[in-house]
Amino acid sequence: MTENDTRKIAEELAKINALQMAFGSTADQEFNMMMRDGKADYNVIAKTEVKGEWIETSDRNFSENFTTEKMPDGTRKVKWITCDIKGKARKLPARALIDFYPLNCPELSCRTTEFTDGADLYLYFKSPVNGYLSVFLDDGNEISRLLPDSQTSNKNMSGVPVKSDKEYLFFSSNHNSLAQKEVDEYNMTMLTSKNIEFNYLYIVFSEHQFVKPILTSRNIHRADGDVYSFPKTLSSDDFQKWITKNKYTDKTFQVKKMSIMIKAK
Question: Theoretical Cys-Cys bridge with 260: which of 108, 157, 186, 199, CB 3.0 to 4.6 Å?
Fold first, then answer.
């Protein structure tokens, strides 16, 4: 993996380690989670169940060291990245256990986190409680908001209202789960000449209405006169500030992060 991807993963693991040390983690054999009204008091980060949540990073440092390891084609130097992190966290309150899956076709059997360049993106979502949903994508350069999309009415511009126990399929015109007549459709596109790229999908959900972050419109004017509209964006720093503010003020506000791989054809 690239050094930038490695640093992101190291930071994620450092947060998990800190949360485990402060609040502990659940274990399958113990099955000690509390469940009430479709809610649980644990959080899953990178497939690890922890009893707390990260609120804000105040200090972060990366260090490097090298080892020589045996590979199929001989020995090779390998760079290891270590992340030391400090920040604010809290014991996790009981929150809705939401289900969501990225798909490469509008069927549950197409559930995947690996896409080929140009493949369509769909999203399955279900919640045990009523609430509001927003979806963002981090392509390594900026954060794009995928939902609400450009077709959403002004009254739902901050978050799409979803009903309890209802199954939703987003980003498909033929399987439109929204009240609006038209929906935006997306495909996963590589931005570099690498064989593999990693994007991050953010699922933002709350039982209460929240105010969207400030977004920037992005249009591309082609030489032939056509104009292509892309999802509105914001910087990674502004996105994290927005998340932090909402976590402080709304205990039902939750953000789920999922890594998405895009492979060259």
Answer: 199
